[in-house]
Amino acid sequence: RKSREGGSDRGIPDSVRKCQDCPFMCKSSATRLLYCTTGVLLRRLEGDTALQGVSHIIVDEVHERTEESDFLLLVLKDIVSQRPGLQVILMSATLNAELFSDYFNSCPVITIPGRTFPVDQFFLEDAIAVTRYVLQDGSPYMRSMKQISKEKLKARRNRTAFEEVEEDLRLSLHLQDQDSVKDAVPDQQLDFKQLLARYKGVSKSVIKTMSIMDFEKVNLELIEALLEWIVDGKHSYPPGAILVFLPGLAEIKMLYEQLQSNSLFNNRRSNRCVIHPLHSSLSSEEQQAVFVKPPAGVTKIIISTNIAETSITIDDVVYVIDSGKMKEKRYDASKGMESLEDTFVSQANALQRKGRAGRVASGVCFHLFTSHHYNHQLLKQQLPEIQRVPLEQLCLRIKILEMFSAHNLQSVFSRLIEPPHTDSLRASKIRLRDLGALTPDERLTPLGYHLASLPVDVRIGKLMLFGSIFRCLDPALTIAASLAFKSPFVSPWDKKEEANQKKLEFAFANSDYLALLQAYKGWQLSTKEGVRASYNYCRQNFLSGRVLQEMASLKRQFTELLSDIGFAREGLRAREIEKRAQGGDGVLDATGEEANSNAENPKLISAMLCAALYPNVVQVRHFDSPYLLYHEKIKTSRVFIRDCSMVSVYPLVLFGGGQVNVQLQRGEFVVSLDDGWIRFVAASHQVAELVKELRCELDQLLQDKIKNPSIDLCTCPRGSRIISTIVKLVTTQ
To answer: Residue limits of the Helicase C-terminal domain (predicted)?
Structure first.
C-alpha cells in the first residue's frame, strides 16, 4: 500500500523499508520511512542512544503492553528529555490514554473516530433470553450447593466490620431495598432476589437460569444454542461468518466434537455449516482455511483462541461469540515456574473481540458474561506482560544500554510505566548470577555481555555460544531456533495417535531435542529434492512446513549475530547464506566443517544443553540416567515439564554451573554439585579430584574464550587438551 502511495510500480520504494530481523541494515540513504519491530529499535539503541537522524517514532498497539514495548517507552522518555524535538506518537484503538499521557508528563491526547461498522453488543442475560436457554438438572454448568455456600462465605469475609454495620443500619432504616447490593459484589455471590433487583427489566426465567449458573465455567451448551440461533436465521441480522473465542485448545476440541453430534452442524443431512478450529499449534495449512469464503448458503464457524483478537483479521465475520475467558501466562518467581491461568478478559480485550465483527459490515457480538460483570468486575486493561514473565533478558538489555549502565536494576525498573514485583526482579538477578552472566554488584560478565547482544532468551543464547565453542554449531542453532520460535511437530484433531507415532519414529536417546534434530535433518534433505518432496515429507511426518522454514530463517539470523560477535566465521550475512543455500538452511556450509566437527555427537549436544538449561533438572526413574533436563516447567491442571532430554551425571557436573564438591562418605569419594542432590560415586579419590580440576580448567578456559572470541580453543595446546578430554568423557560415559 505504501508502495502505491509513494508512486512506485516496482515494489517497495527506496524511501520505505520494512525491517523485522536485522536492525537498520535494510536502511539506505533514501529511506524516509522504516517499519520495524520493537526489538529491532531497541537493538539500534545499543549503538545509538540518541537515535540520530530520526525525527518521528510511531509506536503502534501500545495497549498490548509487551515487556519490550513497556521498556521502549522508558527509553523513549529518557531520549525525549535529551532531544525535545523528537516526536513520539503512541497509538492504539483501546488505549488507556490517561495512563500513557501522565507517564509522558501530561502529553496531549488526540482521539480519531474509528471507521468500523456498528456492532450490536449483547451480554450473558441477552444470550440466555434470545436462545431461551435453560439449565437442566445435573448440567456441568450448574452451581453446586457447596459452591453457593462457599461464595456466600467468601462474600462475608470480603466485607469489613464497618461495611457490616453500615449495611445493617441501611436495612433497619429502610434506606434501600433489602435485596439490592453494592456494585462491587460479583453476580456469582447473589441469590435470585438480589439478581432480580440488580437486573431490572430482565425476565424472571432468565434470572432463574443466571442464579444457578456457574459463571466461572465456559458454557459450551449456551454457545451451541447461540450458534443454532444464528444459523437458523430467525432474526433480522445478515448472514456471515461466526467467530467464537475460547480460552484454549482443550475447549476448542470439546466444542468441535460437541457440534459434530448436532445435525445442524455435522453436514450429514445438509451442507449448512463448515467449522474451522484456529489455534497457534495448528499447521499453517489448517490456519489458512479460515480465510476461505464458503459457498452461498453455508455458514463458516471459526472456533479460536485469542490469536484472532489482533493477530489476524477474517473479513467475512459478522457474528462474534466471546466466552470471556483467555489463557494467560503467569510467572511465580518464588517457584521459578510459569503457569497458564484461565482468566477473564479485560474490557480492552472484550472491545477488541467485539471489533472483529465490524470490519466490513454491521455485526453482532455476544459476551458470555453479564453486563454488570463487564462494567464493574473486568479489569480495564490486561495485566502488563512485564508483571507476569521472567525478567532475565530485560535485565541484560538494561545493562548493555549506555544510558543505564551506571544505574542499578531496581532504580531502572522502578521508572517503568507499571513496574514488576520486586520478587520477580530478585529471582531474575539470581538466575543471571547462576548462569555466570551477572556479578553480585550487577555488572555484566563477558558472558553476560555476549548474551545481551543476542536478542533471545539467555538460555538459548548460552546454548548458541557453547555450540560454537565445542564445534557442534549447526545442531545447537537448530535447537535454539526451535526454542526461540516453536516446535515444528503438529497434532491434527482426528489424527493425534498417528501424529504421536510418527514423532516416536524420530525418538533418539530419550531426548526431545535429538528427535527434533532428526526431523529437521530429514526436512533439509527433502528440500534438496524440490518443493513437492518437502511438502510430502511434512505431510507424512506431521510437521509444519511454515515452522521449519521460520526455524531455517532464525538459524541464518543467529549465525549472522554470532559472526558479528566473533563466535562464527567473519562476515556471514543471513541473506547471503540464504542465496547460496543448495536446499535446506545453508548454515552448515556457511559456518564450515571446523565449526561443526562434533555436530554428529549426540552425547556432546546433550551436554551443551546442560550449560544452557541448568538448573532446570529433575530426578526420574526408569531411565538409563536418573536426570532429565527440561526447558519449561508449567502448571495447568497439574505441573508439567516440556522439551526434555535425558542427561548423564558428568555433563551436569562439568557444565551445570554451581560449585563442585568432593567428599568422603562411608569409604566412597562422592562428587556432587551445589547442595548435593546431583551426585555420583567416583572410582577413586584421584578420579574425583580430576573431575573437579577439569571443571575448574573448563571454567577458566571458557572465560578466556568469552573475553576474547578470536581464541581458537581447539588449536591452542591447553585448550585442545581440555576440550578433547571433555568430549571423550561425555561421549564414552
So the answer is: 222-402
Asked whether residue 247 is assigned to any structural domain, the reply reads: yes
Is 559 in contact with 565 (CB distance < 8 Å)? Answer: no
Q: Which pLDDT tens digit goes with each residue over 392-435?
A: 999 999 998 888 978 999 999 999 999 999 999 999 998 898 88
SS3 298: coil
Q: Specify the pTM.
A: 0.74
d(CA 3, CA 350): 34
Cα dist from 195 to 38, 155, 183, 187, 212, whole Å: 47, 15, 11, 7, 11
DSSP, residue by residue, 492-540: -GGGHHHHHHHHHHT--TTBHHHHHHHHHHHHHHHHTT-HHHHHHHHHH
Residue 411 lies in a domain: no
Cβ atoms within 10 Å, residue 291: 14
User: How many C-alpha atoms does 279 have within 13 Å on its Cβ side?
Assistant: 19
pLDDT of amino acid 134:
94
Handedness of CA 123, 126, 131, 134 (dihedral sign): positive
Environment class of 531 (CB within 10 Å of its CB; exposed 0-12, middle 13-18, buried 19+): exposed
What type of residue is 410?
Q
Spatial contact of 411 and 57, defined as CB atoms under 8 Å apart: no
Lowest mean pLDDT, pick from 149-158, 614-623, 634-643: 149-158
DSSP track, 707-725: H-TT--TTTSHHHHHHHHH
Per DSSP, the three-state class of 205 is: helix
pLDDT of residue 22: 47
Segment 29-74, tens digit of pLDDT: 677 888 888 888 988 888 788 888 899 999 998 888 889 999 999 9
Residue 412 lies in a domain: no
Helices (H), 233-370: 249-260, 284-288, 307-310, 347-355
Residues 574 and 721 occupy one common structural domain:
no
Q: How far apart are CA 543 and CA 631, in angstroms?
A: 21
Task: Evaluate whether 634 touches 679 at the Cβ level (below 8 Å).
Answer: no
Q: How confident is the model at residue 25 (pLDDT cuts 50, 70, 90)?
A: very low
Which three three-digit cell numbers place residue 689?
579430584
* Cell reading at 569: 566465521
DSSP 162-188: HHHHHHHHHHHTT-S-TT---TTS-GG
Number of structural domains (the chain) is 5
Can the peptide bond before residue 140 be classed as cis, meaning omega within 30 degrees of 0? no
Hey, what's the torsion of the CAs at 607, 613, 618, 622, to 10 degrees?
A: -40
* CA proximity to 473, closest of 596, 571, 376, 308: 596
Residue 239 sits in the same domain as residue 374: yes
Q: What would the pLDDT profile of 191-244 be if each residue is shown by its tens digit?
A: 999 999 999 999 999 999 999 999 999 999 999 999 999 999 889 898 999 999
Q: Which range, of 22-26, 478-482, 503-507, 529-533, averages the lowest pLDDT?
A: 22-26
- CATH number for the domain harbouring residue 359: 3.40.50.300
* Burial (Cβ within 10 Å: 0-12, 13-18, ≥19) of residue 589: middle
Average pLDDT, the chain: 86
Please identify, among 359, 380, 401, the residue that sits at the C-terminal boundary of a domain. 380
Report how far residue 6's alpha carbon sits from residue 15's, in angstroms, rounded to the nearest whole number. 8
The C-alpha atoms of residue 323 and residue 252 are separated, in whole angstroms, by 11
